Amino acid sequence: MRSDEPPLSSIPARPDATELAPPPRPPARKRVRLGYLVIVLGTLVAAVGFGYLIYAEIARSRLGELVYEVSPVERAGWLTAPLPDSVVSDPSVVDDSGLDGIPGEPVIAEPINVAQLFPARWTNPRYWSEPEWAGALPYGGADLPEGFEYVNPAEIISGADAMSAPETLKIPAIGLTTTIYGLVVYSEGGRRLWESPVDIVGHIPYTARPGEVGAGWYFGHLESPVRGEGNVFHDLPDVVDLIKHDPVDIIIGSADGEFLYRVTGTGFIHRDDLVLEQSSASTVTLVSSYPKLVYDHRLLVTGELLASRPPG
């Protein structure tokens, strides 16, 4: 090393001060605007969350409106006509010429009740006292669709465990026609679970098939905005109001023909309390999540087998 060169040093060279300088701060006005924006967004999120909680509580408070049971009198009217209550055979009111000139024929002591002129299997029960309005509404009716015949309970029992799997489901009152898929059932944590149906109605395989004794369980989505699994039961809640005025039929088809189940009642249950109950009759229960946007309960629509139609 030459004597005129500066001595070596172990001190590292200092970088240019401009390289470590903090970035320039935004103007005060921009910082204030950004703060306001954060506050507004936070307020909106809180308002939406609070509004959702209010909506959920209101929706749950109205679940009781889903409970309805068709009266035994109306259910009996699906099979039999009402008994006439104004026809008498009092000899004291018999005219010498009788009725229509036939001696000894009883006559009517008072005007005929119109109910006896319109048997239940031909006229909806709501029209028994107002037959002039019969058939005025576009849905329902106590009569059977063409080709269907009332089932014999003895035939249902004798055909147990011999029926085909369901293939189609129709609810004419709400314009629903769809296919049925047998859901896969699996065990997890000691519980039996089933897959979620996508765009169609799913049947729990170990529950009753169409025409069999027992309860058949069918699941479908009211709506599925997140998973996109369809909304096949979007109009199912309408059945609750429809059955208050007219019969509603659930028609399930299989290789054995079509089986008509008439809705006898509706209700609800929390999703954690749902149990696939069995029945000594031949019934079906349709299940859908409820209420909208909450989905923590299940809407139940139950029908009982009334008639069948052979295939073809």
Your description of this structure?
- This protein is elongated.
- The protein has helices spanning 28-61, 72-77, 153-158, 238-242; strands at 68-69, 149-150, 166-171, 176-182, 185-188, 191-194, 201-203, 214-219, 249-254, 257-270, 282-290, 297-309.
- The termini are far apart.
- The model is unreliable at 81-128 and 132-138 (pLDDT under 50).
- The protein has a domain at 145-309: Sortase, Chain: A, CATH 2.40.260.
- The chain is built from 4 helices and 12 strands.
- It has an 8-stranded mixed β-barrel. The chain has a two-stranded antiparallel ribbon with strand order 5-6.
- A hairpin with a 2-residue loop joins strand 9 and strand 10.
- With 312 residues, the protein is an alpha+beta fold.
- The longest helix is centred in the first third of the chain and has 34 residues, at 28-61.
Outline the fold blueprint.
Elements: H1 28-61, E1 68-69, H2 72-77, E2 149-150, H3 153-158, E3 166-171, E4 176-182, E5 185-188, E6 191-194, E7 201-203, E8 214-219, H4 238-242, E9 249-254, E10 257-270, E11 282-290, E12 297-309
Parallel strand pairs: 4-7, 8-11
Antiparallel strand pairs: 1-10, 2-12, 3-4, 3-9, 5-6, 7-8, 9-10, 10-12, 11-12
Main β-sheet: number of strands, strand sense, barrel status? 8 strands, mixed, barrel
The first-level CATH class name of the domain at 145-309: Mainly Beta
Number of continuous helical runs: 4
Amount of beta strand: 15-25%
Structural class: alpha+beta
Strand order of the largest sheet: 3-4-7-8-11-12-10-9
Share of helical residues: 10-25%
The counted number of beta strands is 12
CATH homologous superfamily annotation of the domain at 145-309: Sortase
CATH topology of the domain at 145-309: Sortase, Chain: A
Overall body shape: elongated
Low-confidence stretches: 81-128, 132-138
Helix and strand pattern: HEHEHEEEEEEHEEEE
Rg from alpha-carbon coordinates: 35 Å
Give the termini separation.
Answer: 112 Å
Chain-averaged pLDDT: 78
Q: At CATH's second level, what is the architecture of the domain at 145-309?
A: Beta Barrel
